[in-house]
Amino acid sequence: MKNTHSQRAFTLIEASITLFIMGILIAMALPMLKSFIYRADDELMQSQLLRAIELARLEARAHGVSTVICRSDDHLHCSSKAKKSLIVFLNENEDGLVHVKEQMLAVIQTTSNRGNLYWRMFPGYRDYLLFSATEIVRTDNGTFWYCHAATTDPAWAVILNKSGRTRVVYPDKNGEIKDSEGYSLRCSLGTWSE
């Protein structure tokens, strides 16, 4: 009697070739995957920042009380040196201080393994950005910019004008982003240069 069932199996050479081809395809896909992850991280941070600015503007108007956006490491105190997060809170006293927890409107994480959010006000005499109840920013212009880890040029920037309106800026053909004063933003120390 003849065996009607034939068994097939991969040889060691066939399995090795298959694994080799899969390795090449994975190696080609990794840079695209990294780019996709960075782009998603960029969009998330930008969306959170724009929502926080809009939240501050709307809440100031809705409550008839000034609101503040500032950097904070402890989610209670504003600090120009803080790097961990931005906080948004009601600030009736217009002093940039959280007096009671009920004032808090939002906390936005601004550092990750993939990048950091930097911020500068014009001029830098305050640690916070104040939106008055009449929806007019009570400080001069401000600029936020987001940098990937270990890069020198930002991925994007949000420029906030005196009326509280935002504009998103991406790198130009030279890979630079200039603020409203014409200075190039840099990631190395959260600085800018001419």
Describe the secondary-structure layout.
Layout: H1 12-63, E1 67-72, E2 85-90, E3 104-109, E4 111-112, E5 115-121, E6 128-131, E7 142-148, E8 156-160, E9 166-169, E10 184-185, E11 192-193
Antiparallel strand pairs: 1-2, 1-6, 2-3, 4-5, 5-7, 7-8, 8-9, 10-11
Q: Can you tag this structure with a few keywords?
A:
5-stranded antiparallel β-sheet; 194 residues; minor pseudopilin epsh fold; 4-stranded antiparallel β-sheet; alpha+beta
Number of domains: 1
Assess the beta-strand content as a share of residues.
25-35%
CATH C-level class: Alpha Beta
Count of alpha and pi helical runs: 1
Terminal residue distance = 89 Å
Which CATH-level-2 architecture? Answer: 3-Layer(bab) Sandwich
Give a count of the beta strands, DSSP E runs of length 2 or more: 11
Q: In CATH terms, what is the fold-level topology?
A: minor pseudopilin epsh fold
Which structural class do the helices and strands define? alpha+beta
Name the CATH superfamily classification.
Answer: minor pseudopilin epsh domain
| Large-scale geometry | elongated
Order of helices and strands: HEEEEEEEEEEE
Describe the fold and architecture.
The protein is of the alpha+beta class and 194 residues long. It has a single domain, classed as minor pseudopilin epsh domain (minor pseudopilin epsh fold). The chain contains one helix and eleven strands. The protein has one helix at residues 12-63, and strands at residues 67-72, 85-90, 104-109, 111-112, 115-121, 128-131, 142-148, 156-160, 166-169, 184-185, 192-193. The strands form three sheets. A five-stranded antiparallel beta sheet has the order 4-5-7-8-9, with helices on one face. Strands 3-2-1-6 form a four-stranded antiparallel beta sheet, with helices on one face. The longest helix has 52 residues, at 12-63. The model has no long low-confidence stretch (mean pLDDT 82).
